[in-house]
Amino acid sequence: MAGRFTPPSRTAVRGGWTGVARATGQPAVAGAAPGPGRPAGAGGRSRTWAPDGPVDLGLTLGPLRRGPGDPTFRTTPDGSVWRATRTPQGPGTLRVALGDGGGRVVAEAWGPGADWLLEALPTLLGAGDDPAAFVPRHRLVHASHRRRPGLRLTRTGLVLESLIPTILEQKVTSDEAYRAWRRLVRQYGEPAPGPALPGPGAGPGGSGLYVMPDPRTWLMIPSWDWHRAGVDSKRSGTILRAVRVAARLEEAAAMALPEAARRLELVPGIGPWTSAETLQRSNGAADAVTTGDLHLPGIIGYALAGDRDADDDRMLALLEPYAGQRHRAARLILLAGPTPPRRTPKMRKTDIARW
Question: Where is this chain compositionally biased, Low complexity type (predicted)?
Answer without folding.
Answer: 24-35
